[in-house]
Amino acid sequence: MSRVLFLHGASSSGKSTLIQQVGVQSPTPLMHLSIDHLRDSGALDVGSYAAKGVRWRDHRAAFFDGFHRAVGAFADAGNNLIVEHILDTDCWHADLQQILRDHAVFFVALHTPLSVLQTREAARGDRPKGSAEADYHNIHNGLDYDLTLDGQRDAAANAGILLEKWEGFQPPGAFFR
């Protein structure tokens, strides 16, 4: 059974910054899986779809199905993971519950005020305007978490809290509710 830290928060909430600190402070190695890594490496170039006259939306479901299966494959192979994700599509949580059913998933919410999300989104300039607000209003609805953190708090402090709580975590957790 692999240990999976599943970090869920709106776009621009501070997930990547928090995970960097978790990696620094963690006493054990963790594999960090994120759509941002695929985008930043060029493996996923959403802009190339439009440039070739293809709608990304028509391929989005297949892409995320593959990403979710890859997360499961890494966990099934015995890797301890940090998964950075935004569950913005209704079926994803249920799909991932099935895929990760044999693993100890610690489900963490990163809540960040809307005004902070909007400021960060504008400063980044690499996200569609309004995506953080759309996430803010939708992604946490109806979900229970093992831990909720404040995205305005210092990332190093949040990482310390997260690692302490994760150390004492006993599955099954909130991810499977």
Can you tag this structure with a few keywords?
Rossmann fold, Chloramphenicol phosphotransferase, P-loop_NTPase, 5-stranded parallel sheet, 177 residues, alpha/beta
What does this structure look like?
The protein is an alpha/beta fold. It has one domain: P-loop containing nucleotide triphosphate hydrolases (Rossmann fold, 3-Layer(aba) Sandwich). 49% of the residues lie in helices and 16% in strands. The protein has helices at 15-25, 35-41, 46-51, 57-76, 90-99, 114-124, 131-138, 155-167, and strands at 3-9, 31-34, 81-85, 104-111, 147-150. A 5-stranded parallel β-sheet has the order 2-3-1-4-5, with helices on both faces. The model has no long low-confidence stretch (mean pLDDT 91). This is Chloramphenicol phosphotransferase.
Query: Structural class, from secondary structure content?
Result: alpha/beta
The CATH homologous superfamily is termed: P-loop containing nucleotide triphosphate hydrolases
> What overall geometry do the principal axes of the alpha carbons give?
globular
Helix content: 40-55%
Which CATH architecture? Answer: 3-Layer(aba) Sandwich
What's the tally of helices? 8
Strand order of the largest sheet: 2-3-1-4-5
| CATH topology heading | Rossmann fold
Name of the top-level CATH class: Alpha Beta
Number of domains: 1
Give the biggest sheet: 5 strands, parallel
Q: Estimate the strand proportion.
A: 15-25%
Q: List low-confidence stretches.
A: none
Order of helices and strands: EHEHHHEHEHHEH
Distance between the termini: 19 Å
The counted number of beta strands is 5
| Mean of pLDDT | 91
- Radius of gyration, in Å, reads 16 Å
Organism: Actibacterium mucosum KCTC 23349
Pfam family, one: CPT
Protein name: Chloramphenicol phosphotransferase
